Amino acid sequence: MSRTPAEHLHELHRALESGDHGEQLRHLFTPDAQTLERPNLLNPRGATTPLEAMLAASAAGAGLLAWQRYRTWDVIESGPTAIARATWNAEIAVDAGPFRAGQRLTAHLAQFVTIRDGAIAQIETYDCYEPFDGEGSSGGSADPADPADA
Fold first, then answer.
1. How many angstroms separate the Cα of 125 from the Cα of each of 22, 32, 108, 147, 150?
2. Residue 113 near residue 36 (C-beta atoms within 8 A)
3. Tens digits of per-residue pLDDT, 71-120?
4. Domain of 107: which CATH number?
5. Is 3 helix (H, G, I), strand (E, B) or coil?
6. Checking CA distances to 86, which of 5, 77, 124, 133 falls within 20 to 30 Å?
7. What is the pLDDT of residues 17-45, one digit of tens each?
């Protein structure tokens, strides 16, 4: 039995939360997969990123983050696409650029994940980051899925 688009989305989020990155994620995607990132605080111009660059970015992110968590609030499906409203929380592991070790980041997401041939073909994402205050958090409220808040 084939998986639903929502199941593919949740599998990707679980893999990222568990620390999978780079080649460990390739099996989740079609060879021509891409991410369409809409303009946001980290990437004001937005970007279209092909699979190889997505995998490289995930490896870089894994080195920057101590942990990351997705809290999915709603998912609806329309044909081959899962549409999710979620909150992403993470903690910076090492000082890098404007970020400091221990700093918390929060983004509110709308993600459109399209499945083709049993894998993710496209992720269109709207990442609304909370302001970075540089003092250990992005200014957001505690997330019940955050292990540091337990």
1. 19, 17, 10, 25, 29
2. no
3. 999 999 999 999 999 999 999 999 998 899 999 999 999 999 999 999 99
4. 3.10.450.50
5. coil
6. 133
7. 999 999 999 999 999 999 999 999 999 99
Look up tokens 């989020």; give the residue: 13
DSSP states along 36-90:
EEPP-SS-TT-EEEEHHHHHHHHHHHHHHEEEEEEEEEEEEEETTEEEEEEEEEE
20, 13, 140, 77 alpha-carbon torsion, rounded to 10°: 160
Put simply, whether the predicted model's pTM sits higher than 0.90 gets the answer: no
Rounded Cα distance, 49 and 72, in Å: 23
Confirm if 114 and 80 have CB atoms less than 8 A apart.
yes
Residue type, 52: E
Q: Which residues pair with 144 in a beta bridge?
A: none
